[in-house]
Specification:
The complex is a heterodimer of chains A (234) and B (430).
Chain A (H helix, E strand, L loop, with lengths): L1 E2 L6 E2 L41 H25 L6 H20 L6 H22 L2 H27 L5 H27 L7 H21 L1 H11 L2
Antiparallel strand pairs in A: 1-2
Helix pairs in contact in A: 1-2, 2-3, 3-4, 4-5, 5-6
Chain B lengths: L12 E3 L6 H5 L7 E8 L5 H14 L5 E5 L4 E5 L7 E2 L18 E6 L2 E7 L5 H20 L24 H5 L26 E8 H11 L3 H19 L8 E8 L13 E8 L8 H15 L2 H16 L1 H5 L2 H17 L4 E8 L4 H4 L2 E8 L7 E8 L2 E8 L5 H12 L5 E4 L4
Classes of the chains: A mainly alpha (234), B alpha+beta (430).
């Protein structure tokens, strides 16, 4: 048992220096400190690193409500609800885009795409309603965004099917992109002219479709695939 | 986990007691209001036997089987049936309990070498309740390991008895009256210092012979509690003198008060209040004797029953306020978190909790070496001190989230100078 020459306290076994003043223990009878003799274990526990999402969600909602209430209040004092719905809608849409994926954890990514599509549709519906333009919303915005949403979901679904070979998955995603271009032009044509006149989308869709076929063919031909891999590896 | 469903001996859910309400709200990923009680036996712990003893304890004390759940307006305790497991102790104890990882239990039992430790979330119980759980667990362990039947005693329950509903009553509600005291106080000076790495609580333990400490208190004409508080204040004042910008705020020591002293109750839940002892250092220097006198007189005045009652009745009144009750939990959580920072931590420099002398039955004392209490340290109050005497030795534990050692150094060297030998242990690492 050693004493601290500075503090006068007795030091327990396993203390290499005085815990009160950091003076090293100098005991000729015990030249080496037996750290294992300490009354505390050597193992150090890891602290919790997980974010408390429940609390963060509640806090984020409170932070979202503050500007919404302020904007509504100012607009009401100003004599009506002329501009505040745009700000409120944009805030809610931004929350869905940026805060939702961080604070709400779902097992698959499809829920985030659905929420984003609905948020965008909701915000644009609000804009259409506020400006009295429901017709362009129904004939253009709703089908375009729905198509984009469905195609994105399809592409993610294809890319996540791990039982498919990688090049097949990429080929399906490329084919869906080609289909999306054509679908987009059909919707725009119907909105502008009331009939389908395919043009620019074909120029985009054909090379993408060729790439999709090439990827699928490459996956079929093992030797060719190996040759390509040999030359292109990084 | 037990395979057979046992009959639920207590209500399926409980409201949090008045003191507990603030703790779930105030907790964060890095901090949780925890305390730890531990007992060091004379022989190494048999973990398998301790696990069996823990099962018996949980059966006897249904309060331990509750987990924290969120309601729409308040947190509540929900009864569940699983069994807790004994965990290995660590060099950095008292990390916040991950309630999802810990099976929902609001406590954990840990063992290392000859020591059994119980870390408890303050929402569940206070120091007296925690010590009752630990000593009952130890008594059951001694029975299962050595066949020694420890008789029922204060802080030791008989595991053969049935639990009764007085053990989970909210005694605050029973004894609160209408008259309340304003809670506004002077903001305290706060201790600064170099912060320890997150997830590490520095522990410095001083072990003293209880008879020599009692003799010193008698010589000074005060109680051991007053002596400890005065010495702690003396040390805090010395630390304040060394601070770069001490300001004009008083040094304030928070002393928990066990309300079971005033009101008969069998509750094992929180039933304690506190008093804050301020020292206005701007008025001049205080000797240790003057601080003993100040602490003794302040405690004498503040621990009069009407004043104690009016203090905790203010909290009960706030809980009953319909305006507070109608707000959903997430708003209440934000408000309570703010209140805890603004009124709880702001009004004190540090806390000294003294559980006093624990008298064990001789059969139990023969197997025990010492008992300890550790308090968690918070952000604004980075240092806390806890004292408990048992088996002829008094353990004084300083827990802190800073590296500076001025306070405990002054504290223990003063004791040495006053003729009390001190043995120091720590969990410090390079």
């Amino acid at each position: 048992m050693s004493y601290c020459v500075e503090c006068g306290v007795r030091l327990a076994a396993g203390e290499p220096k005085c815990p009160l003043c950091a003076t090293p223990v100098n005991n000729p009878n015990q030249p080496v400190c037996d750290v294992a003799a300490s009354s505390h274990p050597q193992a150090i526990e890891e602290a919790i690193s997980r974010l408390d999402r429940g609390y963060a969600r509640q806090l984020s909602l409170v932070f979202l409500m503050i500007p919404i209430l302020i904007v509504l209040l100012i607009d009401l004092i100003d004599g009506g609800t002329s501009w505040s719905p745009y700000v409120v809608g944009a805030l809610v849409m931004s929350y869905c885009f940026f805060a939702f994926p961080v604070l709400f954890r779902f097992k698959s990514p499809y829920a985030y795409i659905v929420v984003d599509v609905l948020a965008l549709l909701g915000f644009l519906l609000l804009v259409a309603w506020m400006t009295g333009g429901i017709s362009w919303y129904l004939s253009l915005v709703l089908p375009v965004i729905t198509l984009l949403g469905i195609m994105t979901l399809g592409a993610i679904l294809a890319l996540r099917r791990l039982e498919f070979k990688r090049l097949y998955r990429m080929a399906i995603a490329a084919a869906l992109t080609a289909l999306m271009l054509i679908g987009l032009e059909i919707i725009i044509d119907l909105h502008i002219w009331g009939q389908v006149r395919l043009g620019w989308s074909v120029y985009g869709a054909i090379p993408i479709a060729v790439i999709a076929l090439m990827l699928a063919g490459l996956e079929q031909n093992k030797l060719l695939k190996e040759e390509v891999r040999k030359r292109l590896f990084m | 986990m037990s395979s057979r469903r046992r009959k639920r001996p207590s209500p399926s859910w409980l409201r949090l007691d008045n003191a507990a309400k603030i703790y779930p709200a105030a907790r964060s990923r890095k901090w949780m209001a925890l305390f730890r009680v531990s007992i060091t036996l004379k022989e190494p712990i048999d973990e398998a036997v301790l696990q069996k003893a823990l099962r018996q304890l949980v059966k006897r004390v249904p309060l331990l089987s509750y987990r924290l759940k969120r309601g729409l307006f308040w947190y509540y305790f929900d009864w569940h049936e699983t069994q807790p497991a004994v965990q290995p102790d660590a060099r950095n104890p008292m990390l916040p309990i991950d309630l999802k990882e810990n099976g929902g239990f609001l406590f954990r039992v840990r063992s290392f070498d000859r020591r059994i430790a119980l870390e408890v979330f303050h929402a569940l119980t206070d120091g007296t309740g925690g010590m009752t759980f630990l000593l009952t667990l130890t008594a059951e362990y001694l029975w299962l390991k050595y066949g020694i039947r420890i008789p029922e005693a204060p802080l030791i329950l008989d595991t053969r008895d049935e639990p009764h509903k007085g053990e989970w009553e909210d005694a605050f509600l029973r004894y609160a009256r209408d008259a309340v005291r304003p809670r506004r106080e002077d903001t305290a000076w706060h201790l600064g210092g170099v912060r320890e790495k997150p997830g590490y609580l520095n522990i410095t333990t001083g072990i003293l012979p209880t008879d020599k400490l009692s003799a010193l208190a008698r010589e000074k004409g005060c109680s051991v509690n007053s002596l400890m508080a005065a010495l702690f204040l003396f040390s805090l004042i010395k630390a304040r003198e060394k601070a770069r910008r001490p300001g004009k705020r008083p040094v304030k020591l928070s002393l928990p008060v066990n309300l079971r002293r005033f009101y008969p109750t069998a509750t094992l839940r929180n039933f304690s209040s506190y008093i804050n002892v301020p020292v206005y250092t701007d008025y001049g220097e205080y000797s240790l004797e003057e601080l003993i006198s100040l602490v003794g007189h302040t405690m004498g005045l503040e621990t009069l029953e009407p004043l104690v009652n009016a203090r905790f009745s203010a909290n009960v009144k706030a809980e009953r306020n319909w305006l507070l009750r109608v707000f959903p939990l997430f708003i209440k959580t934000a408000v309570l978190k703010f209140m805890y920072r603004a009124t709880g931590e702001s009004y004190m420099t540090s806390t000294l909790s003294n559980l006093g002398l624990i008298r064990m039955p001789p059969e139990m004392e023969a197997h025990c070496e010492r008992v300890e209490l550790l308090l968690g340290a918070a952000k604004r109050t980075p240092l806390a001190c806890a004292v408990v005497s048992a088996c002829g030795s008094t353990a004084i534990n300083f827990t802190k989230t800073i590296r500076d050692t001025v306070v405990e150094r002054v504290f223990f060297t003063q004791l040495v100078q006053l003729g009390v030998p001190v043995l120091i242990e720590s969990n410090w690492r390079e």
